Each structure stands twice: as C-alpha cells, then as structure tokens.
Amino acid sequence: MIYIIAFVLSFIFTWQNIILSALQGNIVHLQNDRKPNAGASIIPAIPFFQIVFLSFAWLLNYFFHQFAIQIFCILFMVQFIFWIIAFKGQHKEFNELLKIFNQNQQ
Q: What are the b/e assignments for 55-87, b being 16+ CB within 10 Å?
C-alpha cells in the first residue's frame, strides 16, 4: 500500500515542481523585460522523483514498518505546506512584475 501512495504522491510532487519552475522562469522573463512565456520540462522529473519516492518508501517500510505510511504522509504534507508558501510568494511576485510589464507595454 505504501508503494501505491508513494507513486501517486511522487506525481503530485513532480507537478508541484513543474509549476514552480515555470512560474520562476516567467518571473525571470519579466525581470528581463521579456514576454512571460516560459515553460518547464517534465522529462527528467518524471522518472527521477518516482524512483526517489519509491526508494524512500522502501526505506521507511524496512526500518519503520508499522508507521511507514503515516511518516510518509506526514512528511509529504509538511512539504506540501512549504510548497504552498513558496507558490504564493512567487505568484505574488509574478503578478506584480506582470502589472509593471503591462504598464510598460502601453
């Protein structure tokens, strides 16, 4: 069961990182007075994070079998909270830079 949870959460983590990466790329574009059209590649992230999450799940299951799922989910939720904080900060910065960029374009 922990491996299925780890596999699903690894894709959520991958998408979180892709979103932040694209947002950061667009912030850099706006800082350099370019149109915000940056993207992010999913190819290196997809197999990497799945391997890392499944390996971590295996280690937790091996050493803390009784509490492995709870530990894994708690750690993911802590990471998720930090991601929300980072996303809100970058999104706010992006919106401020976009407003300035749009004013300069007129």
A: ebbeebbeeeeeebbebbeeebeeeeeebeeee
Per-domain residue ranges of the chain:
2-105
Interval 1-22: pLDDT, tens: 999 999 999 999 999 999 999 9
Provide the sign of the torsion angle of the four alpha carbons 55, 57, 58, 62, taken in this order: positive
Strand, helix or coil for residue 17: helix
pLDDT digits (tens, 9 = 90+) for 26-48: 999 999 999 999 988 888 888 99
CA 70 to chain centre: 21
Structure tokens at 32: 């350099």
- Name the pTM for this structure: 0.87
CA distance 12 to 70: 17
User: How far apart (Å, rounded) are the C-alpha atoms in residues 20 and 65?
Assistant: 33
Single-letter amino acid, residue 62: Y
Q: How far apart are the first and last CA of the chain?
A: 56
